[in-house]
Amino acid sequence: MIKTSSSQLSIEGFLDPEIGRLNPENRWVKLANSIPWAELGLVYESKMSTGKGSPCKPARLVIGALIVKHKLNVSDAEAIEQIKENPYLQYFVGLGSFTTEKAFDPSLFTTVRKRLGYGDFNRMSSLLQHEGIRIAEGDRDEGSKDGHSGDAEDDKRVVSCDATVAPQEIPYPTDLGLLATARVQSEKIIDLLWPVARDSGLSKKPRTYRDKAHREYVGATRKKRKGAEFWRVCARRQLNYLERNLRHIDSLIEANKGVIRLKSRFLKILMVLHEIARQQSLMLETGANRVDGRIVNVFQPHVRPIVRGKNGSDTEFGAKLSVSLHEGYSYLDKAQWDAYYEGDAEVIRGHIDSFGERNPEMKLGKFVGDKIYGNRNARQTMSGAGVEFVGSPLGRPPSSPEKIRERKENRTLHQRHRSRAEGKFGEVKRGHGLDKIQARRADTSLSWIACIFFVSNLKRFQSEIFFDLVFLSWKYGTWLQDSEKK
């Protein structure tokens, strides 16, 4: 039996005015009250001009909106809509009262990403970590300093490092698909240049054979059995169409007396098309499957294939990241679009120097990493900086009991910190969208990635503050009970 209800109130009577107040135990209210907004605002305002332009949006509003976006893992426009509809989110971002107006236009997110690099988000994360340390040390008495984490003192001078890739949201690249997309864009550029060339005296528009080229491409993609030679033949045909169109574009530019009247967007695409034609022609002529600086997307030419050898995806397409984890806080020490060797001595030195910049009062003691960080050059770099490497040792297994016990303790420390690093990557990829970066520019993509790690650190900061409060309440409650008994 289906039971229907007719007791739904109208929207005017849905919320009781007497209880229409915010719940202080709401997660957004508690988070807003724990964040050091003033310190974070200084980082944001350092990128603003003091004497030019219109007044900027408040720092808390912008930073809060970024936190909402990546914490909920939604698009820019959806984040603004969420803030518009939710009074708790409006309180979180610092609005004076509830409003049905948009906090700001979603395009401001892109502008903020252009201004804030991943170094700025690392500074914000460092502020959170030091603020958490300050609150914890200021609130605990002498008797509780050895309390809630037995490994806390040992972990202060230990950093765990690992590398990963943040995949871009692009179609899976194939040579045939890339050439077909490049051909379509060359046809659009010809359509844009033709009216100007016609006014300059050119009598006939160049032929592009776009319908024939499209039919050949669709027919190739629909074929069930495709061998390597079949792919090469189809790619060569699409490349011929592309090179023909590029020659037509050169003739149209010459007809306009060498003046390229294109918007910057299409001018950039034209440069990318020439490079794609060169790379694909070189690979087809030599029979090679790779080329230096290989372009895999027309609209994001900075994206490179990164061979990782992971299960399910041998090659990923995005920025390669080197991340260090210190006391649960993750920092983006290196981000690069081209592939690099994360066990290189310069990368190791970068991790050590970054730790020193964030913690000037502390010297790094131990460096935790997998086998790739344990090569001889890396170990020499760490040894020269007075840092001990925690990982798979070189040489034969020891025979003395002391060495065996030391290696066992080393293995336990290594496993504990390595599991935290892998868990952090799983958290940011599944929970905050690191596995699908939707920004299109190289700089805004890196800013997007860094903001994800910052929001993850914010979660760590909140849990740390909450744990301290619970521990203190338990500690003082136990002390009062003992005092009453006495």
Quick recap:
Residues 22-115 form the Transposase InsH N-terminal domain. It comes from Fulvitalea axinellae. 56% of the residues lie in helices and 9% in strands.
Helix count, per DSSP? 16
Largest sheet, strands/sense/barrel: 6 strands, mixed
Please compute the radius of gyration using only Cα atoms: 29 Å
Structural class, from secondary structure content?
alpha/beta
Q: How are helices and strands ordered from N to C?
A: HHHHHHHHEHHHHEEEHEHEHH
Q: Which residues sit in consecutive blocks of at least 5 with pLDDT less than 50?
A: 141-150, 468-481
Strand content bin: 5-15%
How many strands in all?
A: 6
Structural shape: globular
C-alpha end-to-end distance: 65 Å
Estimate the helix proportion, in percent: 55-70%
Q: Averaged pLDDT, please?
A: 85
Secondary structure blueprint with pairings:
Layout: H1 27-34, H2 37-45, H3 59-72, H4 76-85, H5 87-92, H6 107-115, H7 118-139, H8 152-155, E1 158-167, H9 175-199, H10 210-222, H11 228-255, H12 264-286, E2 305-310, E3 313-326, E4 329-336, H13 345-358, E5 366-368, H14 376-384, E6 388-390, H15 401-432, H16 442-485
Parallel strand pairs: 1-5, 5-6
Antiparallel strand pairs: 1-3, 2-3, 3-4
Helix pairs in contact: 2-7, 3-4, 3-16, 7-16, 9-10, 9-11, 9-12, 10-11, 11-12, 13-14, 15-16
Main attributes?
single chain; 486 residues; alpha/beta; 6 strands; Transpos_IS5-like; Transposase
